[in-house]
Amino acid sequence: MPSKTPPEIAIELHDLTRLEHLVNDFNLLPKQAVHSALSGKHASKLRGRGLDFSEVRKYVHGDDIRNIDWKVTARTKTTHTKVFNEEKERPAYLIVDQSSSMFFASEGSVKSVLAAQLAAIAGFKIIKSGDRIGGIVFDDENIENIKPKRSRKSLLHLLEEIVKKNQLLTERKNIPEKQDMINKVLFQAKNMITHDYVVVLISDFQHLEAHSHEYLSHISRHNDVIAVMINDPMEFEFPDGKIPIGDGQYQVMMDGKEKTKSEFGKEGQNLRNQNLDFFKKHRIPVMEITTAEDLISQIKTIFGRS
Fold first, then answer.
1. What sign does the CA torsion over 118, 121, 125, 126 have?
2. The architecture CATH gives domain 13-40+90-302
3. What is the pLDDT at residue 177?
4. 191-222 b/e with 16+ CB inside 10 Å = b?
5. Model pTM?
6. Does the pLDDT value for residue 224 go beyond 60?
7. What is the spatial distance between Cα 291 and Cα 19, in angstroms, rounded to a whole number?
8. Which of 11, 16, 201, 272 sits at a 20 to 30 Å CA gap from 117?
């Protein structure tokens, strides 16, 4: 009987569903208010009769008399009214990259596995908050689109599609020369996602270019977008000694000479900086995740939890 693929290389559905308990163990919200993929319902600034109590203030002409706080009024001898924040549903879209560039790690779990785990954690938090969730999962050749629904079944469908594409990476023999699937995905997303969505894009962003920027900036104008960028240390610093590098068909040995290391590291850092500059320009918050550290520890650090 063939041995099971290590979970650091390929994920299974039960590996993802086991992460559900994490949304109960600690609060994934950051200490300060930011546009977060994991924040669930977002309180709007609208004042009026709503679901979420905000404060008590002095009554002014035109306030709904049903909201008068009689206890505070009696104590202060001045009429006070309760103010509510209206809770506004924010449907969420998870866009998850399972293309060939994600099937890489010099240590720890491969990027595609981390992307799957992050999608599961975000998804369970969103469902727990009562919001609708849908998503787009893509590899080098195909795009799977799951429409947003407010159900655990819909989330599990999304996770199943992620698992399918994740496991196919272990069978891939050749890497396509032209890797522009993220452009097609963002173009599709631009036409589907209208406004007031929370859009979580999980990728290594190795293949963003002008069209990608155009589509993503369009989405971010009317939606809250968060980018989750997964990196590996080797992308910024070439290791010492000789290592084999291949595309599934051909393989070469590369050495760790200082010139090679310097040029290799500069290229990786330049790409990272270009992506970060774009996200900053369009006010898109970024979570950077590395393959070199435990995922849960990184999430707790990012969101200010021990």
1. positive
2. 3-Layer(aba) Sandwich (3.40)
3. 67
4. eebeeebbbbbbbbbbbbeeebbebbbbbbee
5. 0.78
6. yes
7. 18
8. 272
